[in-house]
């Protein structure tokens, strides 16, 4: 397979400019006219992302069908070997990839690096788990044998967002390839380099042509083409609930199963017995991740009145020390937000909350100058009718609100249509059990902020979607169960 560009491959050192972005179709790197890629720290164009035509998409579908025919028959141990080789290459290239992610997405370099390594971890787990995609033998009467096989579902059409240019594609590529599927990935046009580097590593690791295809372009045109396409057997999307509902509807019309990782508005319940300082320090640290542009970002801090003032003081104190700037500056704790949509959205939600009586503790308005910079912003005493308490801020905006007891906290946490991640801080086994039983979320973390690791399933309930990524549950989403009933003659 050819390399991404003559001027720069994934193995290039972390110097020089942003790479030339290409699509990968049937093992060939393809260029095409497209749109600019913007550095959110400056607002300047740093490159161009190609835009797929219908002919490109038809080629990708045909290539994926050929790739699937080959890849599904590759032994799981060999699949794992190729995938682990790709992971090794990405790890060797981490500094160059991280720099490109910071340029296109804005997050601090250390976070980009951590994201790349996390993507490696996700693929590594899927690769090794591929060897354990066991079926079942079900006890039956003499002469009869019922077996269940886990078969790859086929060609996957995958759509990933701009906030995690590497780890979101890694989740989908890892799950699909481990299960024996082929995949056509439409990664984000705003942050295309992460997915391209990942695809390059798979090419270099010896993945058969067509098993992984990467396209960019008009998101609606591509989903409108690929989802109904007869070659595609499964749709997986990470992004907003509004778009997820559209795509799930289209997939339903064509009887295609879907995995939907959609929006969230994570509650953080701080109980009366919690250490408010510890919870506040951990909360700010978690909110720094990707500048809050994460579907599992802690957002609604629902704090018991007994520890409310301590929590607010501690959160404000630590939050005021957060440094916002270019992701290339090692002193920045958070980078710019990814685009002007986020800047406008954060400003609108902050102004609305202040109008309704919230108290501004730090930040509050976009930083003047080029790029899309919004400071770490903390609001206390946020009334429940503030728009930000219902709409996902998807940025560095923390909302703190007071409650009288655990039941009120749970009711408030569950009051939204979202149900992705939830967090709680308590030293009480009873509180932990009640929270575990009553919170309407797909992932709950108690006394910390890591909502999912490679080994555990990640996904939502309610408007946050369905299907899982990660864990055995995630891998099984890329398979179907074939039941074979055999009467021995
Ligand atoms: P958006 O709704 O415009 O787009 C969300 C994502 O969907 C983008 O990656 C976009 O390219 C893609 N998309 C849009 N229309 C599409 C279509 N018809 N077919 C296929 N893909 C399509 O929102 P946005 O302004 O880019 O992001 C803001 C919101 O998106 C956030 O508030 C958040 O809810 C959500 N989001 C969620 C995640 C997540 O991890 N679940 C990631 C990114 C964005």
UniProtKB/TrEMBL annotation:
What molecular function does GO assign, one term?
A: succinate-semialdehyde dehydrogenase (NAD+) activity
Q: What are its GO biological-process terms?
A: gamma-aminobutyric acid catabolic process
The record's Pfam families line, in alphabetical order, gives: Aldedh (PF00171)
Q: What CDD domains does the annotation carry?
A: ALDH_F5_SSADH_GabD
Q: Which InterPro entries match?
A: Ald_DH/histidinol_DH, Ald_DH_C, Ald_DH_CS_CYS, Ald_DH_N, Aldehyde_DH_dom, Aldehyde_DH_Superfamily
Q: Which UniProt keywords apply?
A: Oxidoreductase
The segment(s) forming the Aldehyde dehydrogenase domain are 35-484
Per the record, the domain of life is: Bacteria
Q: Which family does it belong to?
A: Belongs to the aldehyde dehydrogenase family.
| Descriptive protein name | NAD-dependent succinate-semialdehyde dehydrogenase
The uppermost taxa in this organism's lineage are:
Bacteria, Pseudomonadati, Pseudomonadota, Betaproteobacteria, Burkholderiales
